[in-house]
Automatic annotation (TrEMBL):
PROSITE patterns registered for this protein in UniProt: GGDEF
NCBIfam families referenced in this protein's UniProt entry, alphabetically: GGDEF
Catalysed reactions listed for this entry: 2 GTP = 3',3'-c-di-GMP + 2 diphosphate
Entry keyword annotation includes Ubl conjugation: no
Pfam families: GGDEF
Its EC number(s): 2.7.7.65
Protein name: diguanylate cyclase
GGDEF domain boundaries: 250-393
GO cellular component: plasma membrane
Enzyme class of the recorded protein, top EC level: transferase
Superkingdom per UniProt: Bacteria
Keyword list, A-Z: Membrane, Transmembrane, Transmembrane helix
């Protein structure tokens, strides 16, 4: 296949990639796709202008190959936006050395210099894009997926190819004529360009789509006000954690919590204040669960915790690896912190009652633990509120009575290690 035909194929592939990503943007509405689509559109323009190189060296070579560097800079800034990593605008300064090529002496053969500098600049930008997608150092990129890693791998291979190309240009016969499309590296570059254009477009769209799918999944699992897991997500994750705890014979507890006199807060101060109290309690749970063991206590087994909002002012935590003393420390930390931070939203402060169902390890059903914790919470309310009441799961599990009234429907999932 002749070089002009391959160049035309590369042009068509780039045009298809630009159109494909623009269409994906209409569906996904992610501006990253516009950066990448614009990059491919610039490649289309550069490839079109390269056909003029027998007529105009300035347009067909200098402008056309410079646009290839511009396209990769657009790819890089799209990657930066996608990953949330900062890229200095000074990267556009890479175009200055390319502009300096116009100062080459008239009698010098420009082929090696143009080819080496173009390949080196493209390699540098492509490898920087790969680093942004694959590196775990620096600013965190928490939304890495297999698709984004695949995109990073394509940029890595593409950058490595152009780095090797820069080193091979001086070899005799590698670039015979940059104007006449003669030389082995020109042919190989066109083939590589066609393949990479297709792969980049597919991986770019896949990376953005995957992120959107994960965001939608997370949204469906989260409580809209507090950001904690909702009831359905809690039931699903609790079943898995209970199974793991049973296999490891780990102790743990299920805690039910609610804000004391929450209805009175809503009636007296308004629902906006009530909502802020709910958010405050969610933040307190997150902070306390993320902290280490209480001062003076040795670190026990590594704990796993699943906090969630069940509805209204009722929250739940399933936590593993803690004995009764540690559970009491945890409850105390929650109550103390809530009393301090909840006072910012309510002049009289805010207190929390907690009912805990403890189990020493082995089989425990979620519905049984919920009923037991609910009974403990009722007892904490009856004894004056602002306290933790503990009940221990008997072996074998006994039916629990004495549920508080009125009471929302208990967690319906009977799934667990015994289900």
């Amino acid at each position: 296949m002749d070089v002009v035909t391959m160049l035309f194929m590369s042009l068509v592939a780039a045009a298809a990639a630009a159109g494909f990503l623009a269409f994906e943007w209409r569906t996904l509405r992610n501006r990253v796709l516009l950066f990448w689509s614009a990059g491919f559109a610039v490649i289309v323009l550069g490839s079109s202008l390269s056909l003029l190189r027998p007529i105009s060296f300035l347009v067909g070579v200098w402008v056309a190959n410079g646009l290839l560097v511009v396209a990769h800079l657009l790819f890089l800034f799209g990657v930066a936006r996608f990953t949330g990593r900062r890229i200095a605008p000074l990267w556009w300064g890479l175009l200055l050395p390319w502009a300096g090529l116009l100062l080459l002496p008239a009698g010098l053969d420009p082929t090696p210099v143009f080819a080496i500098l173009n390949s080196a600049l493209v390699a540098l930008v492509a490898l920087r894009a790969a680093h942004g997608l694959l590196s775990r150092a620096g600013a965190p990129f928490e939304e890495r997926t297999a698709a984004s890693d695949g995109l990073g791998f394509v940029f890595t291979v593409h950058g490595a190819f152009y780095a090797a190309k820069a080193l091979l240009v001086p070899l005799p016969g590698a670039f015979v004529s940059i104007v006449g499309f003669k030389g082995l590296l020109i042919q190989v570059s066109l083939v590589e360009g066609i393949v990479v254009e297709v792969l980049l477009a597919l991986m770019m769209a896949a990376a953005v789509r995957r992120r959107r799918e994960e965001a939608m999944t997370a949204l469906a699992e989260r409580d809209g006000l507090t950001g904690l897991f909702n009831r359905r997500a809690f039931e699903s994750r609790a079943a898995g954690l209970l199974g793991t705890m049973a296999a490891r014979q780990e102790p743990g507890a299920l805690l039910l919590l609610d804000i004391d006199r929450f209805k009175a807060v809503n009636d007296s101060f308004g629902h906006a204040v009530g909502d802020r109290l709910l958010v405050t309690l969610a933040e307190v749970l997150t902070k306390v669960l993320a902290s280490g063991p209480a001062e003076g206590r040795e670190a026990g087994p590594q704990r796993e915790a699943i906090p969630a909002r069940l509805g209204g002012d009722e929250f739940v935590i399933l936590v593993s690896g803690l004995d009764e003393a540690a559970i009491r420390d945890l409850g105390a930390a929650i109550r103390v912190r809530m009393a301090r931070e909840g006072g910012r939203e309510r002049p009289a402060g805010a207190t929390v009652s907690i009912g805990a169902a403890l189990f020493a390890g082995g089989c425990a059903k979620l519905e049984t633990l919920t009923a037991l914790a609910d009974a403990a919470l009722y007892e904490a309310k009856r004894q004056g509120r602002d306290r933790l009441q503990v009940r221990r799961l008997a072996q074998p599990a006994e039916r629990v009575s004495g549920r508080r009234q009125p009471d929302p429907a208990p967690l319906s999932s009977g799934r667990g290690c015994c289900a």
